[in-house]
Amino acid sequence: MTDAPSNGRGYALITGTGAVTPLGVGTENFWDAALHGKSGTGEITLFDPSPFPSHIAGECSDFDPVDFMSKKEARRMDRYAQLGIAAGIQAAESAGITETIQKTPERVAIVMGSGIGGLSTWEREYKILHEKGPNRVSPFLITMMVPNMAAGQLAISLGATGPTQCPVLACATGGEAIAEGLELIRRGDADVVIAGSSEAPITPLSMAGFCAIRAISTRNDEPHRASRPFDADRDGFVMSEGAGAVILESPEHAERRGAEPIAKVVGYGRTTDAYHVTAPDVEGRGVERAMRLALEDAGLSAEEIGHVNAHATSTPTGDGPETRAISRFLPHAAVSGTKSMTGHSFGAVGATEGIMCALALKHKILPPTINLEKIAEDCESLDYVTEARKVPDLGAAVSNSMGFGGHNVVVAFATIE
Fold first, then answer.
1. What is the pLDDT of residue 2?
2. What confidence score (pLDDT) does residue 170 get?
3. 3-state DSSP call for residue 176?
4. What are the structural domains, with CATH classification, of the chain?
């Protein structure tokens, strides 16, 4: 079906995807909106934003949890878990792995992460504790709050009994989930892995915290233009929510059941800056090393990488160092900053951007960076994709994820020959 990468370590096939983002519910809606350069950011409706400096976010306004679970189940889950389960179910259905789960549930693993977990539940129940006393706190507080419950609930929903993991690595969580999924396939611990991440951080406390560190955009009069990676007029990221999941399969398993793969996950690199809790190393040395490690792991040369889905948060502290890293190691690659459309969904975004890479390789089209009008002086001169671009010879791509704490995860993807 496919050729193995030259390093001999093995790879995984992506045979299904699922996404819930501000650009829409479902991979097709997500991808179509991205290619048309649509923005999913707007005025916050999940709470009253008027007391805050920032009034904008990327909400999954089309999402209804009862499309994926019963009303009773939805009431007993935090929104982050609802989003993650929806993405996982979509991915499983698109890959057609229901029969596999039924026949060999122990060979189906789940790696579903979250950077924060049930923040809205925590805020609501803490308020109840102080206003009404401990006897009024929900008995579902703990199971709604902990970050591993999206993974656990998805396993219950699908009946998968293989290994289950929940990486928590801030904004690098989604990339970490895909990397760990690849390792499960390589080790032979699973034939199928549902890998992804979810986040629902649009809450008053979260907004207050990010406003306090002045990391968030206050372009309230132009929410669709607020997220602008690499642009001279950027003033911070736009918070968003969402979830993404991919089905990873061993090549042998996918071939046995006649699956049609989308792309390959061929390697990853992970590093730590050890520099600052919120800002990356100013020269981007950590993410550069992660890119190098990803290509070494994949058995690819730098010249083979045609596309970088950059972390590109639209912050002065983040964009510049990442562009310096790319300019040193992958100066020829076309660069997209898709958070310009989705906003920044923290732990979830590495999964949704991984889907972007896989679809770019399948369709030979690169998603754009919108709102990029003038390159910032602190950003390097690169081949920034500002409109969807056809690239017929696209063979490999990387997705960069950089998280608070100095975490860097880079995942390498390759096309199906």
1. 45
2. 97
3. helix
4. 12-414 (3.40.47.10)
**Catalytic: which of 344, 357, 379, 407?**
344
pTM for this one?
0.97
Question: Which of 315, 334, 329 has its CA nearest to residue 271?
Answer: 329
CA–CA distance from 344 to each of 24, 191, 199, 214, 243 (Å)?
Answer: 15, 32, 10, 15, 11
DSSP annotation of 402 reads E
Signed CA dihedral, 69, 63, 194, 139: sign only: negative
Tell me the per-residue pLDDT of 200-225, one tens digit each, with 9 for 90 and over. 999 999 999 999 999 999 999 999 99
Q: Which of 166, 171, 357, 379 is catalytic?
A: 171
What lies within 8 Å, CB to CB, of 57 at 6+ separation is: 41, 42, 44, 46, 202, 207, 238, 239, 240, 241, 343
Active site residue 344: yes
Active-site residue, 276 included: no
- Rg (Cα) of the chain, in Å, rounded? 20
Nearest of 30, 34, 40 to residue 224 by alpha carbon? 40
